Amino acid sequence: MIKFSRTQLQAIENGAAKRSRLKKIAEKSALASIESAYPHTYIYSPPGLGKTFTVNKALETAGIEHYTISGNISMFSFGISLAVINHSIPKDEVVVIVVDDCDEILKNAQNINIMKNVLSGNKVYSYEKSLQSQWNNLSPLQQAAIEAHSDDSRMGFEVPTDRFVFIFTSNFKLADDDEVRIAREKGLQKAVILGHLNAIRSRCKPADFELDDNEQWGWIADTILNEECINLSEEDKIILLDWMYNNWDNMTERSIRTAEKMAEAMNDDPTGYRDDWEIDYLK
Prior knowledge:
By secondary structure, this protein is an alpha/beta fold. It has two domains: 18-208, Rossmann fold (3-Layer(aba) Sandwich), CATH 3.40.50; 228-281, no CATH class. Helix content is 49%, strand content 12%. It has eleven helices and seven strands. The chain has helices at 6-30, 51-61, 75-88, 109-119, 140-148, 177-185, 191-202, 213-226, 234-246, 256-268, 273-281; strands at 41-44, 67-70, 95-100, 124-127, 157-160, 164-170, 205-208. α1 packs across α2, α4 runs parallel beside α7 and α8 packs antiparallel against α9. It starts with 5 loop residues before the first helix and ends with a helix.
């Protein structure tokens, strides 16, 4: 039976430690006091590591009720999701919301300014446009939620977010102070958007997972070995992970999803899967 090398075992141990830290951060974040100045957490790591899966499972294991919504949707759709959640949950309960992927809701200054108010200050999501054109596309629950957050004095709707604890999981890192300073000193055009992203960072507790190649592989390996995400024997999991490790630099994609697809190839063609791997996943 193939076995992992010492270097691989150390990488798995390091990856497992990083994943364990993520689980602890998720649980601690979900239990944060809503009265805290910084109840929200922003988790960054390279893509393909199953951050949201790990966070959700950690919260489920801890018995913490939470809701997951995508951050890769329009700000209007994001606001609708907040309105439905706020409308559906008793008003005296703290609500934990895991936001998966932030590309869209943090894509420009306008969206980021809305999110600033969601996280701090007024702690409210505001949509200030007419809903007439979208109304018939909304579900009855969404319409009821919008009506509960609207009044005749203004267009749109407004959702209070003062009882929400947000846990963001993202594949991009928010700009830190030095990045903003350097961009401004160099007169770079991106300095403005970096400044806005830095403002989001300042409103959250950041949890940055900077991983080298070994740690990234070890994180994936720990997930494959200890979570029920692929249907393979223990020996076949080791064969798959060993192949990924030895071909890491030449792979066209490196993620848990890659391992899942490779596992399907093993199951579909037990004798010729390596040829498929080389064709599909090597440069």
